[in-house]
Amino acid sequence: MPSISLAPPNLPLPSVLLQQVRSSCAEAAKAAGIRIDETRLTALLASSSPLPPATSKDYSLAFPLKWDSTSHEVNFLSLLAILSVLSPSESLLRQLPNTPSPSSLPRHLLLGLYLSAPPSNHASAPSPLSSAHIAGLKDGEVADIVGLKIHQEKRVEHIPVATLAERGGPGSEIVSRMRETLNRVGDRCVENRYVDLGAFVAETLGQCKSIAAGKGEEEAVGHFVNRLVSFLPIDTTDSYTLSEDVQVHIYSNALFLLLSLTLRFGPSSTPSSSSALPWLPSPSIFPLLADGHLPLLLARRGILDLSECADRKLRAWGEWASAPDLDPNRSTQEPSLTSDQAHLLRAASIHAGELLRSKLAESGRGAGEEGARAIVLDFDAFLRRQGAGAGEGRGLLVEEREIEKCGKW
Predict the structure, then answer these.
(1) C-alpha to C-alpha distance for 293 and 252, rounded to whole angstroms
(2) Model confidence over 131-161: pLDDT tens digits?
(3) In whole angstroms, what is the distance from residue 74 CA to residue 69 CA?
């Protein structure tokens, strides 16, 4: 199996960024020996047609809140997308009581911070999740909101009845990961005089509007991704270099953020929300979102075939994931993966979506405004609904010593 270096390559130019995502993921899947079973892919799509449109609820983006302003909601969704830092931390999450999902803790934290702020009657008032506030967050504040312990009791040597509270444990690692991400995002926004991350995102969307009018939607999406991952001081690039100098581009954070805004404020949203932002892409442009959940959902349905992988552990994971008697709520026999292996599974998942897009184009099913409605995106949402119903909403089990290498999915 090709190895992946920790140093991300240069970002592709906006005009070719989405093209690079498609081609690099295809090359990575081929290099790893991961095969896409196109027959099963199209059969699953046919059996589930017509697909209901993707909604905010499919991606845990529906919140029972009355936002103070559109800008506050944009900021909240922006931070939520960036806080998908827990996706590679499945092994830590499974050590916590009740095993929270990677998406539930960031939602809990941001909602807690937002609702703890005093009410304001002014639309121009600073956001409860302003740059200055998140730049100064402490571990204790984060731990209190999400209800995680960041200390472990340790017996005192030679004093049997005495214990000391010592910082550590899975809760401490997760709290630090979220707090550090918010601190660094807040600091960067303060340095550049943005009141919050949402202000930077809104400004970028305004630039995308002009680009889309002159150069097309794909380049506008490329500009959004390029500007966001260049601006943020955290590992949101999701770009890796294979040992054969093949670059792999994923950008799931940035694309998930853009998708979140599209589902919430795009043409299919409520009339009062539609067109609230300067520009949003059509849903049909999005690839499958390669977080830690998608590879299992595809492998369980026989779409990802790892039987010919040169890597023994990838083959073992494929056998585990496709076993007909798999209990998705138990991880007893689940093989843990290195960072490299997890990234290759994610790249193969994106490639599967692009093969589906090609099949639809060949058949003419993607033609016309209605037919071009995001069938690939709707398929992504369909898989997640099915997985949640079957208890398959789990991420990849990455080895603890490899979690940091996974960056911030």
Answers:
(1) 12
(2) 999 999 999 999 999 998 887 777 767 777 7
(3) 9
For residues 370 and 267, the answer to whether their CB atoms sit within 8 Å is: no
pTM for this model (two decimals): 0.88
b (16+ CB within 10 A) / e for 122-149: eeeeebbbbbebbbebebebbbebbebb
Residue-wise pLDDT tens digits, 254-275: 999 999 999 999 876 654 555 6
What is the three-class DSSP state of 333? coil
Site of tokens 């790892």: 306
Whole-number Å distance between alpha carbons of 407 and 236: 7
Q: Where are the domains of the chain?
A: 14-406
Q: Which DSSP state fits 116?
A: T
What residues have CB less than 8 Å from 299, skipping those under 6 apart? 306, 317, 318, 321, 322
C-alpha to C-alpha distance for 195 and 72, rounded to whole angstroms: 11
